[in-house]
Amino acid sequence: MFYIASLKSKRIIYALLVLVVIALGILSRKVTVIPLIVGDILYAVMMFLLIKFLLIQLRYWKVALISLSVCYFIEISQLYHASWIVQIRNTTIGALVLGHGFLWSDMIAYTVGTAIVYFITLCSSRFLSN
């Protein structure tokens, strides 16, 4: 019973963290002094937290691998310009989720963001479990 409650509380924490990171990501696009790469780093952080929320029992390195793969896939998909996906990208939510143009710097940002959240999560879980 305690184990199930523990999983629920972890899911709640990850859900709240996802919301906070989304808010920070949107804020990073609104404040002009914040470099654009910060939003891309936060996108990768959000993806990691979202995957962990969905697959709560999965090991952190697997979550990192899946979330980084999703980020890479979405970025690479920006090279595809069929009219239907361009129409989706021209909506606010489509632009936020799918982006607009492929950039190598985004791939670097996703790698950095995933590495940061992976090591923070790994270290905090070890600290909290002791």
TrEMBL record:
Protein origin, superkingdom: Bacteria
Listed transmembrane segments: 12-28, 34-56, 63-87, 107-128
Keyword Transcription regulation attached: no
Record keywords: Membrane, Transmembrane, Transmembrane helix
Protein name stated in the entry: DUF2809 domain-containing protein
